[in-house]
Amino acid sequence: MSQSMIFQFILALLLVSVASVVWAGDIEAGKSKAASCIACHGPQGKSSIPGYPHLAGQKAAYLVASLKSYKSGERVSPIMGPFAKPLSDTDISDLAAFFSSLQRCK
Questions:
Q1: Largest CA distance in the chain
Q2: What is the mean pLDDT of residues 23-45?
Q3: Which of 6, 39, 71, 76 has the most CB atoms around its CB within 10 Å?
Q4: Using an 8 Å Cβ cutoff, are 56 and 103 in contact?
Q5: Nearest alpha carbon to residue 66 among 45, 46, 81, 51
């Protein structure tokens, strides 16, 4: 492997590492933003309402994708749509970080 290829590989790894830190949500901010979520999904992301999903321990990427789909209208829900519509990308990342940090339901 040439020095140029090694340098490019190291640079790529650094960029991926920085990108994951930059795009990672803030768990504490997500916790403070989750007030409206807990009515249906429970204070620890464990819903007690049949048919409402547990959010605790879900993968952050899944939660981000789901909320963005509700926000855009790609995924239609008369319940989730109005909650997701006003969320910023930062809000979505923070909420995903919070719920994914919780212990997964069994």
A1: 59
A2: 93
A3: 71
A4: yes
A5: 81
